[in-house]
Amino acid sequence: MKYVSTRGHMPPAQFCDILLDGLAPDGGLVVPEAVPTVGSDERERWRGLTYPELAARVIALYATDIPGPDLEALTRAAYSPRVFRSPVVVPLTRLDGRTTLVGLSEGPTLAFKDLAMQFLGQVIPYVLERAGRTLNILAATSGDTGSSAEYAFRGKPGIDVFMLSPRGRMSPVQRAQMYALDDPNIHNLAVDGVFDDCQDLVKAITADTAFKEAHALGAVNSINFGRICAQIAYYFWAWLRATDDLPPAARRSQPVSFAVPSGNFGNVYAGHLARRMGLPVRRLIVATNENDVLDEFFRTGVYAPRPRERTLVTTSPSMDISKASNLERLIWEVLGAHEFASRWQRLAEEGRLDLGDHRSRLEDEFGFVSGSNTHGDRIRTIRTLYERTGVVIDPHTADGLAVGWRQAEAGVTTLVMETAKPEKFGDTVSEALGADTPPVPPHIRELLARPQRVREVPDDVATVRAYLADHALPAARADSPDGAPAPRGQDLGPA
Ligand SMILES: *Cc1c(COP(=O)(O)O)cnc(C)c1O
Where is each Tryptophan synthase beta chain-like PALP domain found (predicted)? Predict the structure, then answer.
């Protein structure tokens, strides 16, 4: 499997070459040259696999430069019962006759990002060790990415994490998950600004390629293809489990729809790849909150990223995004490489891109439909589901369920992606449930009580650069200047 850039100026590269960076050297996004397919016979054989085994099969189709047995060891470690609270890793819960919840949030930070990040937490050290390299991960978070990356890489030799978060703009649980970590390779920098300011700092610092290379900076943001391909696995898993009870003849090709709470378009883009790989997916239902740039795109064919002043603060904050980074991959696919090249340029010039006559293909050919929600929709959905079933969901999942219900079709089960656990966003859940709000679980109370450790920094490139220059691991492993692999667990030099 080779990867190319949406912008067309990257020599084809292999999985391990593109893993440490989301962005291609030409500023585009890396995409697989061709999407692999899985036939229905093979898919049926996958029914007996455990989650780590299935993930290894799916990822193997994309990471063809990693030997299969190695991948199996990596996914076994990533999805071990020590990390995920559910023994099946991704449990499904029937909500009503037509709707099932897909439990993607059983990991250590109670959000779906753990599923991709725990895999990166295994595969990146593996690749670095083979190459005798170190990595300094520089990233920005609005809350969930930061904690899942920190839990995935804490204590990993040869890797330091520098996480920029917007000071005072995350939920108390999100804050505690990050700032209560005391591993020396985790650096939390709270920026005096909003998420977009943090993102801009990362962009400004990594745009300086000499600095980036000197300090071995890499990224694990939502455009990282390693994350995307790990996410494809749970679409296959969810389909297999949702169809297990059907008669063998019917289940082979039984279509389901997925409702996906969306922001940067990373999660549902993985669903799109699963569908192109042959998984019987009828609809990919893209759900947004009031920041509805994706809903606008799928309804009208116009992609118009918004300036940060127009990004609203909502009660599903992990979806408060007005530029959906991964959408470039889909638009590249819809337009084709050639037409993409001329029209993407116009997006930069005019601030909007009208897919025009391609719009109907988004639904007819690719299966996308969409919808957006208000705070009231979220509250009502949490309440209604609780009254009907006793199941409590978080506000992001409620955005997915609300649109899933609206877009329901007779005879097609909708699988709703649970992108976070309700205890992570307790305020909104208790607004919805009042006296019925479940008590704060002991592990959350204990987490909130732990001492927190964070460095406050101004929204200033020079300050963050200086911090990195002082604290980043040296680019080559301290004990192997000639690039030979360093033994595991060894002290790798000053932090
Ligand atoms: C990150 C996140 C999303 C959005 O996922 P994308 O891949 O960016 O579309 C939705 N819900 C929660 C809880 C998240 O953390």
Answer: 107-335
Supply the pTM of this predicted model: 0.94
CATH ID of 92-107+228-438, from 3.40.50.1100, 2.40.30.30, 1.50.10.10, 3.30.450.20: 3.40.50.1100
CA-closest residue to ligand 1 atom 1? 318
Per-residue confidence of the chain (495 residues) as pLDDT tens digits? Answer: 999 999 999 999 999 999 987 789 898 999 999 999 999 999 999 999 999 999 999 999 999 999 999 999 999 999 999 999 999 999 999 999 999 999 999 999 999 999 999 999 999 999 999 989 999 999 999 888 999 999 999 999 999 999 999 998 888 999 999 999 999 999 999 999 888 889 889 989 998 989 999 999 998 888 899 999 999 999 999 999 999 999 999 999 999 999 999 999 999 999 999 999 999 999 999 999 999 999 999 999 999 998 878 889 899 999 988 889 899 999 999 999 999 998 998 888 899 999 988 999 999 999 999 999 999 999 999 999 999 999 999 999 999 999 999 999 999 999 999 999 999 999 999 999 999 999 999 999 999 999 999 999 999 999 999 999 999 999 876 655 444 444 333 333 333
Query: Which atom of ligand 1 is the closest one to the Cα of 424?
Result: 13
Q: Which residues line ligand 1 (CB under 6 A)?
A: 111, 113, 144, 222, 261-267, 318-319, 396, 419-420
Atom 8 of ligand 1, nearest CA residue: 264
Give the residue, out of 292, 318, 373, with the most ligand 1 atoms within 8 A of its beta carbon, to mutate for a pocket test. 318
Question: Residue written as tokens 């470690």?
Answer: 77
Instruction: Decide if 113 is catalytic.
Output: yes
Q: What is the dihedral of CA 126, 131, 136, 137, to 10 degrees?
A: -50
Q: Which residues of 346-381 are buried (b: 16+ CB within 10 A; e: fewer)?
A: ebeeeeebbbeeebeebeeebbbbbbbbeeebbbeb
**In whole angstroms, what is the distance from residue 231 CA to residue 51 CA?**
12
Choosing from 113, 156, 212, 421, the catalytic residue is 113
Residue with tokens 């899985």: 38
